[in-house]
Amino acid sequence: MRSMAVSQPAAPSALAEAVRQELIAAGLPVLPWQPREAFPGTEATGYRVERDADDYRPGELLVLEQQSGPTWRDPVGPPLAGLGGYLPGVRVRLTEGVHAGFITAVVEARHTTSLDGPPDVYLVEHPQGTGELQVSATAVELAYEDT
């Protein structure tokens, strides 16, 4: 493999720092930044990288640039639920009405006006455990687990 020399700054670039912060936030170990030669790269989620760029460091990734588009940090919203809506058992937070803020589970997604597009009503477990509750699809969002 032929490499091309690229001048490297004395400190990590904004790209390198962005990558480091993403990896740290994901709970992965991160080595200190070291200037290196750049190589033509391959594609990886959110970044263009070169795999196994150094024969003495197998498995190491050399990050070349950040790509535009969604990342793993972007919030998950109703579009991710798909046209069928959230599946039964998915934990959702109620965002409207007297039970706003409660986390419950989807029992069924319903299409009351049209079968084209996402559901307009959800049947969810009642937050107080007393049966089921029908709510507008706009009144639920995916419930994230608190950490």
Defining traits:
27% strand, 5-stranded antiparallel β-sheet, 147 residues, 3-stranded antiparallel β-sheet, 8 strands, mainly beta, disordered N terminus, elongated, SH3 type barrels
Task: Please outline what is shown here.
By secondary structure, the protein is mainly beta.
Q: What is the molecular shape?
A: elongated
Judging by the overall fold, what is the CATH architecture of the largest domain?
Answer: Roll
Give the integer mean of the pLDDT values.
75
Question: Based on DSSP secondary structure assignment, what is the total number of beta strands?
Answer: 8
Oligomerization state of this entry? single chain
Would you write up a description of this structure?
The protein has 147 residues and is mainly beta. Helix content is 8%, strand content 27%. It has 1 helix and 8 strands, in the order H-E-E-E-E-E-E-E-E. The protein has one helix spanning 14-25; strands at residues 42-44, 47-51, 61-66, 91-94, 103-110, 121-125, 132-136, 140-142. The strands form 2 sheets. It has a 5-stranded antiparallel beta sheet with strand order 7-6-5-4-8, with no helix packed on it. A hairpin with a 2-residue loop joins strand 1 (42-44) and strand 2 (47-51). It is elongated.
Describe how the helices and strands are arranged.
Elements lengths: L13 H12 L16 E3 L2 E5 L9 E6 L24 E4 L8 E8 L10 E5 L6 E5 L3 E3 L5
Antiparallel strand pairs: 1-2, 2-3, 4-5, 4-8, 5-6, 6-7
